[in-house]
Amino acid sequence: MEDALLWEKFKQGDKTALSQIYNQHVRLLYKYGRKFTVNDALVEDCIQDLFLEIWKNRQNLGKTDSIKLYLLSSLRRKIIRKSTSENKKYDKNTDIENYNFEVEFTPEEMIISDETNELNNKKLQGQLQKLSKRQKEAIYLKYYQGLEYNEISNIMDINYQSARNLVYSALKALKKNFLAWALLISSGLL
Prior knowledge:
The protein is mainly alpha-helical and about 190 residues long. It contains 9 helices and no strands.
C-alpha cells in the first residue's frame, strides 16, 4: 500500500494501518536507534514512545510521502533528547555533536570476505571510526539505508547542501586514508 494512503488510514484511526506501519518499520527503527546508543532499553522505549505519541496525536499529524523518513527523523530526535538529558531541551545548534553514532559491519559481511577483503573491511571500519559523528551518520543513511540527500537532510535536521557536504567530506577522508594505505600495501611496507 502506498505510504500516503496508509498514513491517511492511520490518521483516521485504523488500527490495522498502525500495525502495518509498525511491522514494516520497527526493525529498521531499532537498527537505526542502536547506531546512537548501545542501550537496548532506551531504543525500545523511544520506539514505543514514538508510536504511542503518533497514535495519540494522529489527527494533528500532517501528510507525509514517506513514513520511513518521518519515523527515522522522529526517532532520531527522541533518542538524542533522551540521551543528552531528560530535563534539557534539545538544541540542535549546541548539542549536535553530543551524541554517539556507530557504524559497524555485520558478522556475515566479515565471514564472506576473503583475507584481503577482511583486511580492507577492518581498515575501513577503523577509518569510519575516525570520521565525525555526523559524517558517520550521513554515510550510514546514504549507503546503508540508500537515502537521497534531501531525505538525509530531513532526518538529520540540516539543509540539503550540508547533507551533501557531510557525505562528500567523509568520502574524501576515507579515500585519502585508503589511498595511503593501498600505497603502503603495494610497496610491501605493510
